[in-house]
Amino acid sequence: MAKFLVTYPGTNMPHDAESMAKARDAFMAWAQKAGPALPEPGAPIAAAITVSSEGSTEGAADGPFNGWSIVEAADMDAAAQVLEGHPFIGRGGVLQISQPAAP
User: 40-44 and 96-98: which strand pairing?
Assistant: First the structure.
């Protein structure tokens, strides 16, 4: 099985405590359904530092993402099937699946 990086672009995250709890519960229900295809559920991103040839600066790079997960699947299409019913998509967000380049 290959591993795929799933990133959560945009700002489609709730900020009040009640909505955050509902989002977390929905994610945990989806994660349980994904089972072993989700070896690393990831986490939201709280802070970022951007590193370039000019040094480091506080803040996100252009096109930031708000969270990440690792999905294990046979190929990208199978990884997309694992993401069906993901609550982030249900709230109007999009998910990006990236496959690491071969060494």
Answer: unpaired
Q: Check: CB of residue 45 under 8 Å from CB of residue 68.
A: yes
**Sign of the dihedral through C-alpha 26, 6, 12, 83:** negative
pLDDT in tens, 17-42: 898 899 889 999 999 999 999 999 98
Q: Is the pLDDT of residue 52 over 80?
A: no
Contact 31, 41 (CB under 8 A): yes
Q: Would the pLDDT of 71 be above 90?
A: yes
Cα(57)–Cα(35) distance, rounded to whole angstroms?
A: 37
Pick from 84, 82, 76, 67: nearest CA to 8: 67
- pTM higher than the cut 0.85: no
| Cα 33 from Cα 35, distance rounded (Å) | 5
Of 17, 38, 16, nearest to 27 (Cα)?
A: 38
